[in-house]
């Protein structure tokens, strides 16, 4: 979806994004080199989804992962490479 975005500084509008019919989150943000904030993802409903492989794969730098604390991903099957290739976390 956001494949090869070089930098995502502010994606606040994604907090209103309806993820109800997204069943596969694999490769969704792959190759985004820099995330300054994941705050917009904090209210995403990812329940009943299974595949998160390479969702943030090859993202080079995350400054804030705090929003992910609210994502309920229990009982999911595939996380292979979900955060693979991330060089630097600053939380």
Write up this protein.
The chain has a 4-stranded parallel β-sheet with strand order 1-2-3-4, with no helix packed on it. The protein has one domain (1-10, 22-91). It is globular, with a radius of gyration of 12 Å. 0% of the residues lie in helices and 9% in strands. It is built from no helices and 4 strands. It has 91 residues and is largely without helices or strands. The N and C termini lie far apart (25 Å).
Topology diagram in text:
Layout: E1 7-8, E2 34-35, E3 61-62, E4 88-89
Parallel strand pairs: 1-2, 2-3, 3-4
Short account of what is shown:
With 91 residues, the chain is mostly loops. It has strands at 7-8, 34-35, 61-62, 88-89. The protein has one domain (1-10, 22-91).
Keywords:
little secondary structure; 91 residues; globular; four-stranded parallel sheet
